[in-house]
Design a protein that fits this description.
The complex is a heterodimer. Chain A is mainly beta. Chain A has 2 domains: 178 residues, no CATH class; 112 residues, no CATH class. Helices cover 10% and strands 43% of the residues of chain A. Chain A contains 5 helices and 22 strands. Chain B has 2 domains: 94 residues, RNA polymerase sigma factor, region 2, helix turn helix motif (Rna Polymerase Sigma Factor, Chain: A, Orthogonal Bundle); 80 residues, Arc Repressor Mutant, subunit A, CATH 1.10.10. In chain B, helix 7 crosses helix 8. The chains are: A mainly beta, B mainly alpha.
Chain lengths: 324, 175
């Protein structure tokens, strides 16, 4: 038998075609972006007594990016997982993220979220509890992560500053840390509304969350106002300022992968402060500079005693471009 | 835009395009490995969904999507065969071979070839299926199986030599 004859014989073995239903099956399992899901236990307080009898809710995988749900028929919540700076992403495995869902316990809605890092052999996360006051407001409390919910028995990264309970309602937004240390931060950004909320992408959230905006800024060095105001408003993921006799400074909330940025200070509300050399620089803005609470600031300092006037820019100043 | 990236970002149309382009040969390969339609459906479904999971192995810099998917099908098929004690002896699922009298010989031949290929050693069977039925190059088969081209070539030669011997009695009938 030659090769051609063998090939012809082999060709007689035909296979059945893939069933047409296979496409529909695969399509049905395509993981669409999660949307707010009205669940049985979320129907409202009128049926709270019934809900108390329901079992623990879902165990979900792949909640690393975000999810949405309702606390009651008029309170919609989205939660987006954020990591900051980019290097923090490399430490935590999103595929190891999970949540217990939520359940009513003693008049409170409770649940836990967590992530596991193989690299660190460490869990991080928190247990949350929210209690309605009956007027559309909730008391949201963050608790240490309940170890009973963990899938991987490993230490739990300690959250250094456990936030106090806060009253939240439609329109509120706030962040809750899963992990917060010098090498990075993993946190959930919550938004609450009285209407259906689309879950923002992590990228869009990161972009918005990493934006600095300086409005009518004034600059102080070691407590003294530096005369001269250059800009009404500048903004972006990086903003720069030229300060007479001191030089050029670029600051950012997220240094990305640029190793020249070093952690140098903080931003909170309308105040941005950072240190360079022996000097403390302070920028006051007439409006909030970044969202969230107190957040670290990363800076690049380019000392230059020849600078003669205050000058702001979104991005790097021209005099710093050679440093990019 | 890269269809895999788009699919991972949640674009269903990109995911379905990937499915439409690749599913048929993957299903055939899975079927020839497992000889089960149900298993083949499950395997193909899992392979496509695995593409979307973070941390799974597909990396465009390391090889083509086609060879990655064939490799994923292969791994799952072998896992299923090994999980089943009667993996190699499993009877093929009933495929409708009813045909007019004139096609009876063809149907009989198909059954003979199916058995002959199924009786090849596992490593030769995979190479033969990928090379003959799916027309993968030796280099692509090497990528799928983690072998160098020389090893693929020798396995293919052995597989064909074995089949030539087994099927020689049918050569005349086929003519």
């Amino acid at each position: 038998m030659n090769d051609r004859e063998l090939d012809e014989i082999l060709d007689s073995w035909k296979t059945p075609a893939a069933p047409v239903s296979l496409r529909a099956r695969v399509r049905a399992d395509f993981p669409r972006a999660p949307r707010p899901r009205p669940m049985r236990w979320m129907l409202g307080f009128a049926v709270a007594a019934t809900l108390l009898a329901l079992p623990t809710s879902l165990i979900e995988d792949n909640v690393g990016l975000g999810d949405g749900f309702q606390w009651d028929p008029h309170t919609f919540v989205v939660r987006v997982r954020m990591m900051h700076p980019q290097s923090a992403r490399q430490q935590w495995d999103i595929s190891g993220a999970g949540t217990t869902g939520a359940r009513w316990v003693g008049g409170k809605l409770q649940g836990s979220v967590f992530m596991f890092s193989k690299q660190r052999n460490e869990n991080c996360g928190y247990t949350w509890s929210t209690e309605p006051d009956g007027n559309g407001k909730y008391v949201f409390t963050v608790l240490p992560l309940d170890p009973a919910v963990l899938r991987v028995q490993a230490p739990i990264a300690r959250i250094q500053h456990m936030p106090p309970p806060r009253v939240v309602t439609a329109g509120s937004s706030f962040d809750v840390d899963l992990y917060n240390s010098a090498d990075g931060r993993v946190y959930d950004h919550y938004e609450i509304a009285s209407h259906h909320l689309e879950i923002p992408t992590q990228e869009s959230m990161a972009q918005a969350h990493a934006t600095l905006t300086l409005t009518e800024p004034n600059v102080y060095v070691n407590g003294y106002l530096i005369p001269g105001r250059d800009a009404l408003k500048v903004g972006g993921p990086i903003v720069s300022v030229a300060i007479p006799s001191y030089g050029y400074f670029a600051v950012a909330l997220d240094p990305g992968l640029d190793p020249r940025f070093i952690k140098a200070g903080t931003v909170k509300g309308n105040i941005l402060e950072f240190a360079a050399g022996a000097n403390l620089f302070r920028v006051e803005s007439s409006a909030a500079i970044a969202d969230g609470g107190e957040r670290p600031i990363f800076a690049i300092a380019q000392p230059d005693g020849r600078v003669t006037s205050v000058n702001f820019a979104g991005g790097f100043l021209p005099a710093m471009q050679g440093k990019q | 835009m890269d269809l895999v990236k788009a699919a991972r970002k949640g674009e269903e149309a990109a995911f379905l395009e990937l499915f439409d382009v690749h599913h048929a040969p993957l299903f055939r390969f899975a079927y020839r490995m497992t000889r089960s339609i149900a298993d083949s459906e499950d395997i193909v479904q899992d392979c496509f969904l695995s593409l979307l999971r973070p941390g799974t192995g597909y990396d465009a810099r390391r090889g083509s999507l086609r060879t990655y998917l064939f490799g994923a099908v292969r791994n799952q098929a072998l896992r299923r065969l090994r999980a089943s004690e009667s993996g190699r002896q499993r009877a093929p699922e009933a495929v409708d071979h009813r045909s007019p009298e004139s096609e009876a010989l063809q149907a009989e031949m198909a059954g003979v070839v199916e058995r002959a290929v199924g009786e090849l050693p596992e490593t030769q069977r995979e190479v033969l299926i990928l090379a003959h039925y799916e027309q993968l190059s030796l280099a692509e088969i090497g990528e799928v199986m983690g072998l160098d081209v020389g090893a693929v070539k020798s396995r293919l030669q052995r597989a064909r030599a074995g089949l030539r011997e087994t099927l020689s009695a049918y050569a005349t009938k086929a003519e």
